[in-house]
Task: inverse folding
């Protein structure tokens, strides 16, 4: 496994906030973390790791290589 900097995996949904606000908040966090990536998984919510396990696992595996 290769080196990777600080990583944050998560989904933050602010109750009642529009999607673009979530993306903006997440982008601000990503901008502060070296090597961080922001990925949107359509049709996924707080349980992206469960709802779209194959895609989520593929993205995590590629990130930590």
Result:
């Amino acid at each position: 496994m290769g080196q990777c900097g600080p990583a944050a995996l998560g989904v933050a949904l602010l109750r009642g906030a529009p999607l673009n606000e979530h993306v903006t908040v997440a982008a601000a966090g990503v901008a502060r973390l070296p090597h961080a990536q922001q990925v949107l998984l359509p049709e996924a919510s707080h349980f992206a790791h469960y709802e779209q396990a194959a895609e989520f696992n593929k993205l995590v595996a590629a990130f930590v290589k």
Notes: The chain has one domain: 19-64. Residues 19-64 form one domain.
